[in-house]
Amino acid sequence: MKLVEQAFVELLPEKDISDYELKLKYHNKFKPYNANVRYLRNTIQFNLSKKWKGVSREIQIGLIQGLLLRIFKIKKKTTNIDLYNIFMRNIHIAVPKTKTDYVLESSFNRVNEKYFYGLIERPNLAWGGDSLRKLGSYEYGSDTITISRIFYDNEMLLDYIMYHEVLHKKHKFKDKNGRNYHHTKHFRRDEKEFGNSKEMEKEISRLINKKRVRTFLRF
Ligand SMILES: [Zn+2]
After folding, report:
1. Using one digit for the tens of pLDDT, what is the confidence trace for 36-81?
2. How many angstroms separate the alpha carbon of residue 190 from the centre of ligand 1?
3. How many angstroms separate the alpha carbon of residue 12 from the centre of ligand 1?
4. In the chain, count of helices (H) and strands (E)?
């Protein structure tokens, strides 16, 4: 049986698989371990980063099943989904650390020393664009923290954003009935450790407004 078919029938035995056309495609240009799903009429197309090809069938089935739960809006648990979650929580160990930058690494080191006793292994670090909306992100599959370049000159805010993203690396995610939760209660509690978060959020809004005005004047 094909991988996608096995994932489908084991997760949704009550549905008739012949009502659907299941397709699986591996993509070269996807970020490592990224995946998405398109559901149009009765065709379900799974798009997976090529990196998934080297991963065991059991784990890939878990990934496909998680995507199926999302499109059918169902909550359910399977052993394969558990395996997939364990894999994603641990993949950072195997990811090569190739990307860094002096300013980002200094910020990471300050945050790591001050809040984590230096115990967090350095992830890949990269600047994003000058985004005013996407301020920072942590990607499990590539073990990468990306931070908007608008924080380049502001050490205090940079550390604040860095701290949030390092927390994502530390906490990973909680799964419940096939859903993953990233900003858990425990996460929010740790987030407050930084202190002054209200003031920080205000400073961020101020910085964003300033940048916005500047962008406006340029045109
Ligand atoms: Zn977050």
Report:
1. 999 999 999 999 999 999 999 999 999 999 999 999 999 999 999 9
2. 12
3. 32
4. 7, 8
